[in-house]
């Protein structure tokens, strides 16, 4: 048995609440989002997990989620590395638009393809495969070595950057991963073997 990887999607953002495409835009957490992030910290603590290092994106909703989790753990000063490799998928021209308005403009089917296909890019943006192309190398080079040294690593990031990471960890196909939902503020705990394969996976739900 090697180390532990804890993945947390940021708490609900103000734009999640308003049903807007967010991507690399930087709205803050909603009131519910702050509570979800604190609750994630309490769940991690209840499972006896204590991170040795944390990673997050350069977007504030992920960073604030990370801060809330560490505060609940009494680890406010923990080393935290921020990198845009962990940013949400870039939705390009859709960013800031209401999802219903986008459907009215481009049609239900086209917007569904942009949101839920693996390799189709929205105008000016990234596909999930593009997101994975920056997440996977960063994980292998910067995050995984800490886990393989037996450390507990916290990653506070986004629905699609984490979806890409879970795809690799769980061995999912492109078709499978786009159907998978990652809830806000719900920790996913992986225990890895020394050869980097997954020994176990647990979702810390109610």
TrEMBL record:
Catalytic activity from the UniProt record: (2R)-2-phosphoglycerate = (2R)-3-phosphoglycerate
Classification via Pfam families: His_Phos_1
Active site: 10 (tele-phosphohistidine intermediate), 88 (proton donor/acceptor)
EC top class, as a word: isomerase
Pathway recorded for this protein: Carbohydrate degradation; glycolysis; pyruvate from D-glyceraldehyde 3-phosphate: step 3/5
Annotated site, Transition state stabilizer, chain positions: 158
GO MF terms held by the record: phosphoglycerate mutase activity
UniProt cross-references to SUPFAM superfamilies, sorted A to Z: Phosphoglycerate mutase-like (SSF53254)
Keyword list, A-Z: Gluconeogenesis, Glycolysis, Isomerase
Family matches, as InterPro entries: His_Pase_superF_clade-1 (IPR013078), His_PPase_superfam (IPR029033), PG/BPGM_mutase_AS (IPR001345), Phosphogly_mut1 (IPR005952)
Annotated binding of substrate, by residue: 9-16, 22-23, 61, 88-91, 99, 115-116, 159-160
Enzyme Commission numbers on file: 5.4.2.11
Sequence similarity: Belongs to the phosphoglycerate mutase family. BPG-dependent PGAM subfamily.
Protein function: Catalyzes the interconversion of 2-phosphoglycerate and 3-phosphoglycerate.
Subunit organization: Homodimer.
Protein name as catalogued: 2,3-bisphosphoglycerate-dependent phosphoglycerate mutase
Higher taxonomy: Bacteria, Pseudomonadati, Pseudomonadota, Alphaproteobacteria, Hyphomicrobiales
